[in-house]
Amino acid sequence: QSPQILKALVEMALIESAESSNRIEGVTVERKRLKPLILGHSKPLDRSEEEVAGYRKALDLIHKKH
Q1: How crowded is residue 11: how many other Cβ atoms within 10 Å of its Cβ?
Q2: Which InterPro entries match (predicted)?
Q3: DSSP letter, residue 41
Q4: Rounded to whole angstroms, how far apart are CA atoms 55 and 16?
Q5: In 10 A of CB 40, how many CB atoms?
Q6: In this predicted model, what pLDDT tens digit does every residue of 20-37 receive, in sequence order?
């Protein structure tokens, strides 16, 4: 049960981080689109969604290297 809880917390933190960081830059995406974009389950439909997906890719690179 603990690994599942940890996975859910990491997922939630990633989504919240992506939303907040992009919002600071003036990039907004519908809340219902955030999770699929961040988790890679959906392709971006516009420039704002591309920004959010790019943020996720950048975080992936950082986590894989460190």
Answers
A1: 13
A2: Fido-like_dom_sf (IPR036597)
A3: S
A4: 12
A5: 11
A6: 999 999 999 999 999 999
| pLDDT score of 66 more than 80 | no
**Structural tokens at position 48:** 């704002």
CA gap 22, 18 in Å, rounded = 6
The count of residues in the chain is 66
Distance CA 66, CA 8 (A): 21
> What are the helix and strand counts (H, E) for the chain?
3, 0
CA separation for the pair 66, 60 (Å, rounded) = 10
pLDDT reported for residue 19: 92
Task: Indicate the domain borders of the chain.
Answer: 2-65
- The predicted pLDDT at position 29 comes to 95
Angle between helix 47-65 and helix 31-38 axes, rounded to 10 deg: 40
